[in-house]
Amino acid sequence: MINKTIAIVGLGGLGGFVCEYIGRLGFEKIILIDKDKFSKSNINRQLLCTTNTLDTYKTDNYEEKLKLISDSKVINHKEFITLDNLYLLDGADIIIDCLDNISTRLIIEKYASNNNKVIIHGAIGEKTGQVCLCLPSYKMLSKLYKNTSEIKKQTYGYAVSLIASLEVEVLMKYINNDYADLVDKVIYVDLNDLEIKKLKL
Amino acid sequence: MIKVLLYGEARLIFNVKEIEEKGSTVKELLSNLALRYDKKYKDLKKFLIYVNDVNITALRMFRTKLNDGDVIMMLSPSSGG
Predict the structure, then answer these.
(1) pLDDT tens digits, residue range B6-51?
(2) What is the pTM of this model?
(3) Domains plus CATH for chain B?
(4) Residue A198 touches partner B, C-beta closer than 8 Å
(5) Which residue from A10, A130, A192 is facing B81, i.e. has the nearest CB?
(6) Closest CA to B16 of B79, B74, B80
(7) Taking Cα atoms as reference points, which of B54, B46, B45 lies closest to residue B72?
(8) Homologous superfamily in CATH for domain A2-200
């Protein structure tokens, strides 16, 4: 059992796979945050979305799954993170960013910076994505998304699970104090070319 | 010539993965690309741009000088989950 509390913010494609992987690693406490229910459009890439789980809360489904695969204490928040409920993250040692929009990412970055918490960031679009370790003072997400506009692109389950795996690996490197080579760097993934690059932001 | 590698949204916009273009600075290169592909220079400036794997924010931004054989990478971060 790893003596840490992990908050997974967003239980879409990335959050679902991250939940599965960290559940099987075994953490003391896992906080799940997402207000959405599964819908038909989620089936192509979201782990627990099936015809049986449509219109049920994602947090409920992942909590149930976690209870089958781990002894972690699970906290279930059926809410979207906003400026008004950032206290939901207060108990977390590490925040896993599995969000689907830039504006909420920037909200949690400010919160994490003010509260000296670490974010493990992951995002995906089509077959490309990126992962990085966001230490409190580095403003990685602000730098990454400077001048960037939101673009919604179709994604694929196998690409989502790869980005989620990388997020969990970055998490474990941070926990094991083996992250010197990740500071101020972004891991870019492009499955179109089967390329992974680690570059300074 | 400068080799320009395109990733993510940049690849979707140009509809190719690699371009060869002239330019003595990043600004000149982007201007040439904008002209050649009928794009706006200001839109191309929004991408994360690396020269030989170094972010131009660590160089001289758009005034960064380029030499024959340099490799430019243009990419945009994803934001979906």
Answers:
(1) 987 788 889 898 999 999 999 999 999 999 999 999 989 989 999 9
(2) 0.92
(3) 2-75 (3.10.20.30)
(4) no
(5) A10
(6) B74
(7) B54
(8) NAD(P)-binding Rossmann-like Domain (3.40.50.720)
